Amino acid sequence: MADEKKPGLFEKGGKLYWLHSSIDAFDTFLRVPGTVTFKGAHVRDGIDLKRVMIMVVIALVPAALFGMYNVGLQTSTLYGLDWGFWNMFWYGLLRMLPLFVVSYAVGLAIEFASAQIREEEVNEGYLVTGFLIPLIVPVDVPLWMLALATAFSVIFVKEVFGGTGMNIWNPALVARAFLFFSYPSSMSGSSVWVSKTWVPQLKGVDAISSATPLAIAHDGAFDAATGAVGQYSFLDMVYGFIPGSTGETSVIAILLGAALLIWTGVASWKIMVSSIAGGLLVGWLGQIAGATTLPCYYQLVMGGFLFGSVFMATDPVTAAQTETGKWIYGFLVGALAVVVRLWNPGYMEGMMLAILLMNTFAPLIDHCVVSVATSRRAKKTQTA
Amino acid sequence: MSNNLDLKKGLNVPIQGAAAPEVIKSVSPDITAVKPTDFAGLVPRLLVKEGDAVKAGSPVMADKQRPEILFTSPVSGKVESIVRGAKRKLLAVLIKADAQQEYLDLGAKAPASADEAKKLLLNAGLWGALIQRPYGTMAKPEDTPKAIFVSSFSTAPLAANTAFTLGGALQDIQAGIDALAQIAPVHVSVSKDSPFGQLKGATLHTVSGPHPAGNVGVQISHIAPIQKGELVWTVSLLHLAAIGHVVNTGKLDLTRKVAVTGPGATRTGYVVCLPGTPVKEITPVQADIRVVGGDVLSGENLGAEGYLGFFHSQLSLLPEGYDREWFGWAKPFRPKVHSSSWCYFSWLTPKKEYNMDTNLHGGPRAFVQTKCFEDVTPMDIFPIYLIKACLAGDIEKMEKFGIYEVLPEDLALCDYVDPSKNEIQAIIQKGIDLMIKEMA
After folding, report:
1. Which residues have CB under 8 Å from B353's CB, separation 6+?
2. What 3-state class would DSSP assign to B4?
3. Which residue, A104, A245, B70, B361, has most beta carbons within 10 Å?
4. Which residues touch B423 (CB under 8 Å, ≥6 apart)?
């Protein structure tokens, strides 16, 4: 008799049932589940969320690797340490590793516990969020702050809404916003963007100012003749040899990731294209209106604009879901980000808040698109 | 109104085991089943008891609410047993066939009015072949539909090739169209270069494109979308031929060429048999093989001990996918697994056919990626919004987003492509059931 069978250790009724979501997560991480279809289509596509999420992580790898190198490069250059390539890279890697460990440990612990409470399987969404968070904060951010921000965003932005797929805002960006508003001295200004912790020679040395090109341009130090912003040339910004959040500096590395995301269809190219179009348009208007002397395409290569357009705005859960809505949503993200950059005296980077604001309005955009489409459809069927 | 439809969205699922156009055997089984469960929403009333003699075309059961709707035996013989399930629910009437088949004379006469046509269908036991849209339930004799739609081909995975199975029954099909045209205008959609392009008395529509272009629901939504309060009926080409056969000969003959297909089939090909034939007579079934009546996307799991259903012209045999692949989701290459997503490398081998099994390839998750639904739904609807309205049970939104136009089978590919492994067809069916309950 089935009901006489003793439940397994992790099955319902078993002693360690409270661990079943975690066990299941590790088990299906190693081997794909042996579940067979029981209703609906009898055969299924090989794609699952694990695969989708790992694609995003792979797309982030070039930006992450370059970022690690750049962390070392910036420190080495700023303090005149003259490290070689590998030292720069190892320094960056070792600086970034604790951030990744903290981000994943805190986030996954909460994910696992929440999945257990909801008696669901652990969702893979955090694979991406956990990878994004270290890439969009200053590398020297204290780990306890990072842990706090991660916990806040996973609990209050994701789990209370029901987990991955149900959240309204991008959790990684909310973690950054939490840090930005709670600990502004560690998150903004001109001294946080180059790492100096862990460098023995720098013990006791005061932080040397290392403003990002965005901040330099904000202060008006753009040389129209050479096209340089402060000491950084346009090509420096394209390659990514500039201070900034670890993942955001290299246009080339980000574009590599964008190519993979577009190729696999994991992220919407419509959002990327329209966001860039929005940023260019407002940047150009700003130039005409005299708000800035920067050519509009500088907006794309400075700060987190491109990283945000490619990796953050395209999050399928928090972006608009209708195809027309994606065009509108992306355009407004890009446009708003540059508006904040150009017409805002205090804060020079607008991408984070632009995306979070448009996350909020994405359902409204979709609602309008769907309403228009259904009323058009109603008219069509009446005349048919 | 369009007479030429070229649909772009959709997906042909590349699965192994297509049936070559040849008949591999003819089966006259000892036992044939008549199953009320073949008809959606039918509450049957039994008209025979064990030991009764029946002819092919004799009534076996009727609809409890509309006793004029008869369901007839496809064979002549003796009622062997009556199979009931939980709460005495009637599952099947098993009929032991005679050595010599006798047919009840239903009167070979072309109907001259709608009433005559309806009567012919009711008496022959073919009324159940008429499906009403919206909702996909059995048509009601008192209704008059706006139109009757027939899809003369199927784009479903490994579906029977109607040009082969019914290409020789043109006279019967023509008589069927003429009979149904008494009730409402008939629309027939045909594929390019189809033998059915020469049919008369119906509006012909040429339809091309990947699956689900052959689904009658998709065709209706392009030809004449269903509004609130409208009714259309659909009938399969197979049953249209059976109707015409009654008109031409007075005999009910449901004999069909059934495509035995799929990677789990020991031998693929066509088997000539009647509905209600035991699966095991049609094809040998090995251990851990699932037998699906119909196609692999929206067919019914018959089980090795089951019987071919009234609507089935295809059996799909699939290995059960209990196998657990190490790091399957992380492997760069998984040559045995097909994915329409470009996250895998199936796009490198567009012509390859896959040895598919029933593995779910993942675990159930919340909706994350939803554009994939639109890519496989060639209809003017927002699939994800319709699905969510069904989940929420919001009648008004279901109406707005097109619940009248779809049956689960039209969104079957959403089941297939969803990375979050939601049961889209079950969700749509739940929405339709709610509509039926609320609109009654």
Report:
1. B14, B15, B16, B17, B18
2. strand
3. B361
4. A39, A40, B415
B412 touches chain A (CB under 8 A): yes
Nearest to B71 by CA among B96, B46, B52: B46
What domains lie within chain B, and their CATH numbers? Answer: 4-16+107-249 (3.40.50), 31-97 (2.40.50), 256-319 (3.10.20), 360-439 (no CATH)
Q: How far apart are CA B72 and CA A249, in angstroms?
A: 75
Nearest Cα neighbor of B151 from B193, B179, B186 is B186
Q: What are the structural domain ranges in chain A?
A: 18-29+49-187+227-253, 267-376
Concatenated DSSP letters of A130-142: HHHHHHTS-TT--
CA distance to A118, A135, A254, A258, A307, per residue, from A169 (Å): 21, 18, 22, 21, 17
Q: pTM of whole model > 0.95?
A: no
pLDDT tens per residue across span A145-185: 999 999 999 999 999 998 888 899 999 999 999 999 999 88
**Amino acid letter for position B5:** L
Q: Are B56 and B74 contacting, i.e. CB atoms less than 8 angstroms apart?
A: yes
- The secondary structure of residue A158, as a DSSP letter, is I
Q: Is the distance from CB of B367 to CB of B394 less than 8 angstroms?
A: no
DSSP assigned state of A309? I
**DSSP structure class, residue B103:** B
Distance CA A98, CA A75 (A): 18
CA distance A43 to B105: 43
Tell me if A51 and B329 make a contact (CB, 8 A cut-off).
yes
Q: Which residues of A touch B344 (CB under 8 A)?
A: 46-47, 51
Contact state of A37 with B358 under an 8 Å Cβ cutoff: yes
Model pLDDT for residues A94-117, shown as the tens digit of each residue: 999 999 999 999 999 999 999 888
Beta bridge pairs of residue B259: B270, B314
Answer positive or negative: Cα dihedral of A129, A47, A38, B309. positive
Q: Give the pairing of strands B300-301 and B289-293.
A: antiparallel
